[in-house]
Design a protein that fits this description.
single chain; 333 residues; alpha/beta; 2 domains; five-stranded parallel sheet; 15 helices; elongated
């Protein structure tokens, strides 16, 4: 059963109150930064809307509809996503038929017009259990232009008893006409104390994970699971060695390729943010008194190379070269 996160109370009350008053909007758009649980909220909402015998504002968890939703087989719930294998929330629901027939070798990165057309065909039928029909888009900003236009037609004249649940970290990427047809549910990072309580930790590792994860608890939990503190220390020691002229970029690149990729990316960005604050006259005590601040030009070059590294790292033949190139602007030789 999908559990509602403690900092989702206000958004949950908005939706449940609207349903109780018979004013539930036919399209809800959950927006906010990564790692604050938007998809988990939509999963909890879907479970409640699909349940045949809800206990107030909670699904019963035992009826046929709840069991089918848990198994990803509920006939009145359709989930659209670029790659169903990369979906965390609603992971039990399979990809659509048009995705299964595709011969592409790489995972898709967009929601196609074929997916929306298949959704449209499915939504015109009557709900199997006489309740809501749900269309979930994870994320909605993955819609290509043709798919967005096709979805807009559905939102303008929604089928009976249909609720669209959309998620987007970048709502500005959605057409304004599409956004205007949705009720926005805005999510943000909770207070640090609440995030620490959810992580069940108030030590330095949790504080570091929350800082580098933008205060987002789910992102922080993911970083902690990948041993963020160790990776952070390795990165800080290595970059300090480059600035002191005691470390070699080729050797560091070789060693860092063994680190968890997402955690390495986060640590590099976190170090850059702290270094930039230090360079602009706002010393960061967390860097220590012995931190060597590179000239602004070198930090700017490092920032530019970091963007290239994130773009090139997916290519197995260039990832090590991109990492070496990233480190050279800080190297004192």
């Amino acid at each position: 059963m999908n559990q509602l996160l403690p900092w989702h109370t206000a958004q949950w009350e908005t939706v449940t109150s609207a349903r109780a008053a018979g004013r539930l909007h036919h399209a809800l758009l959950a927006t906010g930064p990564a790692g604050v649980g938007k998809a988990q909220f939509l999963a909890a909402l879907a479970a409640w809307l699909l349940c045949s015998s809800p206990n107030g504002d909670q699904p019963c968890g035992a009826c046929r509809a709840c069991l089918q939703n848990t198994a990803g087989t509920h006939p009145d719930c359709a989930v659209l996503s670029p790659d169903p294998l990369e979906r965390v929330a609603f992971s039990a629901y399979p990809g659509q038929r048009c995705q299964m027939e595709s011969s592409r070798k790489k995972p898709a990165t967009v929601i196609s017009v074929d997916q929306v057309r298949e959704l449209s065909t499915r939504l015109v039928t009557t709900a199997h259990y006489g309740h809501y029909k749900l269309a979930v888009l994870l994320p909605a900003d993955a819609l290509n232009l043709a798919a967005a236009n096709a979805l807009l037609k559905l939102l303008e004249e929604p089928p009976d008893n249909t609720v669209f649940l959309l998620l987007s970290q970048r709502p500005a990427f959605l057409p304004a006409t599409l956004r205007s047809r949705c009720q926005m549910l805005r999510f943000s990072a909770p207070p640090t104390s609440q995030a620490r309580a959810w992580l069940n930790s108030d030590g330095p590792a949790a504080d570091l994970a929350l800082e580098l994860g933008g205060g987002a608890p789910l992102q922080a939990a993911k970083l902690l699971a990948q041993d963020l503190e160790t990776v952070w220390n390795v990165v800080c020691v290595g970059l300090a060695g480059l600035l002191a002229g005691t470390a070699d970029p080729m050797r560091l690149a070789h060693d860092w390729l063994k680190l968890p990729q997402q955690t390495l990316d986060t640590a590099l960005y976190g170090w850059l943010r702290r270094a930039l604050r230090n360079a602009t006259g706002a010393p960061d005590a967390k860097l220590g008194n012995t931190f060597r601040t590179p000239p602004p030009q070198r930090l700017q070059a490092f920032a530019s190379e970091l963007e290239d590294f994130l773009r090139l790292r997916e290519h197995p033949l260039s990832r090590d070269l991109a990492l070496e190139r990233l480190l050279y602007p800080l190297w004192v030789n």
